[in-house]
Input
Amino acid sequence: MATPATISRTTELSDSQYKWGFVTDVETDIAPKGINEDIVRLISAKKDEPEWLLEWRLKSLAHWFKMAESAGEPEWANLRYPQIDFQDMYYYAAPVTAEAPKSLDEVDPEMLEAFEKLGIPLHEREKLAGVAVDAVFDSVSVATTFQDKLEEIGVIFCSFTDAVRNHPDLVKKYLGSVVPYSDNFYATLNSAVFSDGSFAYIPPGVRCPIELMTYFRINTEGTGQFERTLIIADKGAYVSYLEGCTAPIRKTSQLHAAVVELVCLDDAEIKYSTLQNWYPGDKNGVGGVYNFVTKRAAARGVNSKISWTQVETGSAITWKYPSVLLQGDNSVGEFYSVALTNNYQQADTGTKMTHIGKNTKSTIVAKGISAGHGQNTYRGQVKIMPSAEGASNYTQCDSLLIGDKCGAHTIPYIEVGNPTAHMEHEASTSKVSDDQLFYCLQRGLSEEDAHHMIITGWSREVFKELPFEFAMEAGQLLKVSLEGAVG
Amino acid sequence: MLEVSNLHASVSGVEILKGLSIAVNPGEVHAIMGPNGSGKSTFANVLAGRPQYIVDSGSVKYLGEDLLTKMPDVRAKDGIFLAFQYPAELPGVRFWQFMKAAVDAKRRYAGEKEMAVREFDDLWKEKAAQVNIPSELISRSVNEGFSGGEKKRAEMLQLALLEPKLAILDETDSGLDVDALRTVATSVNEMRHPDRSFLVVTHYQRLLNHLTPDFVHILVDGQIVESGGADLALQVEESGYDQFIKATAS
Output
């Protein structure tokens, strides 16, 4: 006879649960494959860039070639993937529109539809007030909403290209000031070939009344995506910035190597939230985005505060360590992260908190969820410099394992150079227990809903740092990403 | 409502239930009493479909259908509720949200619409008052950091919200002080209904002081050895389980 133990759920799971995997048919202006000085000059010329920026790109390229010849790609991360052929890749792809669109009416309707499908509001309807969006399609920013309203209060929010054109002094002053061109292999590559991205500047004393959002979308096959984001909060300013990313389903892997630089002056605060949902590859690990991102913030002023919150559910490979340089006295750095790996996804992610100023304080809450054959590594560094009198750090790393083929790894580095530092480190590894699961089932929840509820609850400490609607979306992302992992 | 015939079940390869039979009609309250290790909790868990509890033979019919082939969540949605002896903690999962999901799952199963937030909130507050639970529980995670008494009250709140047809109380009285015990008993009494049956699993008679059962069954070594009315519980209170154990042995 059938017994409860022998009844198994036969949920048919389709090959791909990734609902953002569509391709949009827009005409694309694409440069030949490969990386060399000509390509860099071409990118710079396409954007009509000033000489100093071209010089900076070329300097970066020369340095990158040196890096590629000597050490090559960094290999210290707990990641396994085939070697990337950097010459077999497009470095520039842009939707064909000779001029940047002046208004939404000039944006290719196919592209608008693509963003509509993603649920990204580009039409400035009344009900959407509250978020200004910059949409980056392949490498080019296609539309930025609410610009006029923001300008009234002095907030600059535009594509990186526009910033170079209209606010060259600000860009020149801060570009590379947090992540130098020579920083690391991928950041250096980005510095040479970056195409577009977002730029935001919040003037002194202004609290940006709406959230700024950039939505990144890779479309063209075989293209590397290299955006550059630069956000500056001047003295006493505040801004909440959101970032979302998706890509179509492709059998081949795509490289994404972005650089994000944040600068906070005295008494300023930047809250930076990311929902990273690049295509993760299929259930056998074919395809997916290789995400090698350098994100760093300088809490430069006294009493400044930087908060990174990330929910990482996408990408085949994630290599990402949003960091904070706590330079100003009393500055605060925070890192809240949920990273999920399912199927054959691999993530090596964490943060670096470098305490330089006095009485600086950092908080790290990193949660890793591993399912399927996923491998999840937390890698973090907390460094207290001798100058950082009275610094403190609290670190909490939690891992949750689903199934018996996945892995969780925690690699914390702690360097203390000042005896007045106060350090706390907590770590835990757990599974969804049979008791918890049965409790939910007994209340009528399906096995999948039960898992989702338990995992979302487990992630709450991070989710609560997200703006409300982003938190809802993050919950949904976890659910979709875990489909097939349980039951 | 519930018809159990010659049920044999085991946990980790050890046979615990050895031919248990019982019939429960709508509206009846049955108490299952027995010494430690007699199989009371196993019986409760087998009815709820806990995966680690393996049914070896026998049958269980619930509302005329074979219960044992149904998944645990389906049993729950069909109206079986288990008040746990040790309710699990769900860190970060808000109680309110958990119960809304449970109520909605049941409604969807019955082909009804999910409850509007406002409507559910009103219901939640009404039931919370009914089982005398502070409504500040709304903002807390399911069972996390609850005291023993709070956990049991929380189970009663869930019982009240889900309005089951068959409520199984697994040692709900264990670890409760006199006041909490009375609250639990009162809420069960208020939930009594001609269409709702209760199976009250308990070691002690004390809960039954506040909760007069229609039938009392004595479970010893996986079998029911004696059945009677409410006075049978008093007999246990006076002379213990030994008399029944000896009766089985002879």
In short: The longest helix of chain A spans residues 51-69. Residues 15-320 of chain A form one domain. Chain A is about 20% helix and 35% strand.
